[in-house]
Design goal:
- The chain is built from 6 helices and 4 strands.
- The chain is α+β, with helices and mostly antiparallel strands.
- A 4-stranded antiparallel sheet has the order 1-2-4-3, with helices on both faces.
- Helices cover 40% and strands 15% of the residues.
- It binds flavin mononucleotide.
Length: 193
Amino acid sequence: MDALDAIFSRRSTGRLTEPAPGGDDLQQILEAAAAAPDHGELRPFRFVLLTGVAKDAFGQVLAGAYLARCEAVGASPTPGQLTKERTRLGRAPLVLVVGAVHSDDEVIPWVEQQAAAQAAAENALIAATALGYGSMWRTGDPAYDQQVKGALGFGPHDAVVGFLYLGTVNEGGAKPPRRPDLDGLVTWWEPPA
Ligand SMILES: Cc1cc2nc3c(=O)[nH]c(=O)nc-3n(C[C@H](O)[C@H](O)[C@H](O)COP(=O)(O)O)c2cc1C
C-alpha cells in the first residue's frame, strides 16, 4: 500500500482482535513512529507497549487512578466507570502508549516536543494501516493523570499524547477509505490590496 492509500484508508476501529502486530511488523511501526519530524532532534517520543497480562494488570492502575481522581474532587466513583477503567485496554490486543519526555531545551519549546510525539503517533497509525492492521488513537482522562503517567514511566512534566489501540479489524468490520471534504478548510493567502 502506498503512503496516500494508507493515509486515506486509516480509520478508527473501536474494538480490535488478534493478531496484533508483532515481530517485523511491530518493528516497522515503531521505526515509522520514530521517523517523525522532530525539531532539534531531541527524540522526545517514547513508546510503551502493553499486551496480555500486562494490559490486565494496567487495568488495575487505571481503576486506581480513577478512584483517586474521584476522591480528589469529592465525587463518588460509579461501578460502571470503575469497570470501564479496568477493562479499557481490552479493546485491542496491543496498546502502544506514545509519550513525550519534557526537555528544558532553550530553543525547542515544549509544545513542539509534544508535536513531535503526536507526529510519531500518527506515523505509527499510518504504518499499522499500511501493514493491514486496525487502529484507534485514544486519550481520555487517563492520558492526563499523573498516577497513570507515573506507572508508565513518565515524569510529572512529561506528556502521554495517546493510547494507540492496535490489532486486526473483524471480518466485515472494515470502514471504507475516504477523501475528506476540504470545504472551508483551505485558503490561498494573498497580500492585502
Ligand atoms: C489526540 C487524540 C485523542 C483522541 N482520543 C479519543 C478518545 O479518547 N476516544 C475516542 O473515541 N476518540 C478519540 N480520538 C478520535 C479517534 O481517534 C478518531 O480519530 C475519530 O473517532 C474519527 O475516526 P477516524 O479516525 O476513523 O476518522 C482521538 C483523536 C486524537 C487525535
